[in-house]
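Ticket reopened. Same input as before:
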Amino acid sequence: MHPAISVIFFTVMSGAGLGMIFLLGLGWPMPTGPLAAFLISLLAGGLTVAGLMSSTFHLGHPERAWRALSQWRSSWLSREGVLAIATLVLFGLYALVWMVTGERMAWLGLVLSLFAAATVFATAMIYGQLKTVPNWHSMWTPVCYLAFALASGMLLTAGIGTADVLLGIPVALWTAAALVIAWVAKLVWWNRADGTGFSATGSDTGTATGLGSLGKVRLLERPHSGENYLTREMVHQIGRKHAKKLRIIALFLGMAFPLTLSFVAMGAGQAAILFLIAFVCMMAGLFAERWLFFAEAKHAVSLYY
Amino acid sequence: MTSLPQTTGKKLGLVIDLDVCVGCHACVVNCKEWNTGGYGAPLADTDAWGDNPTGAWLNRIHTFEITPEDAPAQIVHFPKSCLHCEQAPCVTVCPTGASYKRADDGIVLVEEDKCIGCGLCAWACPYGAREMDPAENVMKKCTLCVDRIYNENLPEVDRTPACVRTCPANARHFGDFADPDSNVSRMTAERGGMDLMPEMETQPVNKYLPPRPKTRPEAEGMLAPAIAPKANEGLLGWIDRALERLG
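Engineering reply: fixed in the latest deploy. New output:
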């Protein structure tokens, strides 16, 4: 699949933003004062909104994007839009109360966390629902998206928050655990994707043409000599060239560095800056991971080309 | 509403006869010609006279080679357009309601004014039946020439999709699959009409008729003795023996 930068940016950024909103909603301890409340809300909301704005850049008609809120009964993309807006409205309310009264409403926070998680789930299901892309068509896809949103959001939240210890466990151990869970899920995902191909549905050029029972089928001639929308969008192969190297880069930037920094932070006591560096590292790693998510995915239509 | 209708009154669709198609691309051209001036936005091309022409087409012909284990390879020309699936995945993923399947005749259409050009329907389609228009940035697809088949301004003979009307080999047929006595239903039953990628569970309405079995020389026992050259009989046999004797 064609890795569109706008969509990669969207899923990574709003994932981190929604991860942070999730943790804020659960009551992660934060600096007090209206200015802090404003800036923290701006950061978490800003990341989410920046991602959502970016996602509209790949639309042919962004001015009609509001129409995408109508089909939540059947469409995951529509659900994602509705949930994202609901989450942001709830978060705006939460932030307003926080700024004005200094109080963080626990029950509203819980509802907010639920909506933030549901939004990430819906984003992942846009891909996870597609039977035509066997790599994506798995419950491991939403698991990865949720775990990455939590881990990246937690590094940022840990860098800004005031907690050293949560529920008796050092914050650095929480971030380390989130990182390990996320990347274990991704390794399972990669392992499944590498072994699956089209064997999950049993599709090949033979079933695509219905001619497989007559013999070995191969394409002799494409319909047109040039490229077309389908080959550019779904038979895209250029991005796979450096897949192995990009996986290693993703693992180093996304896991090894942030994990090391988490443990250094634990030794150093309160070390906000280390968490923030770890966050930036992880985001870079996630960009590589998300590029591969698209670039390595093979679409059923490639069986005709 | 992008939920699919439970059932459709008619199931309009095409039968494509892979035994007959000669790969002339006339249906491709006539489809483009009709649909660039008919339903919705024109079907644009970019760099049409340049080095890298590209554009939106609703019907494309691929050519495949089949190699049986015990016989020479054969060529099959393979026209591909929207199959108007009963369980159309392109419809249910649409976030805006632009994609829909008509309850009365089963045709899958795009209401272009509602399309935001997100491309998710094209991702959901296993067959590559949907293409984004490069100029209008809305999704284009086969309409089964909805603006021809019901058009009373056209002579009755022309009230059929442009690809079917133009096919010089008669490889394409249009009809109602809900009616078991229709031309397309009968053809499908007689020739073993098949679905493309049934494992995708899309339940395509369009059916493809497989190529008829090729006659294979070794299987033709009756005529073989008369055709095979024999060097031990008649004039050839005499010449053969005479030449042998020359050493």
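The longest strand of chain B covers residues 59-67. DSSP finds eight helices and eleven strands in chain B. Please confirm and we'll close it.
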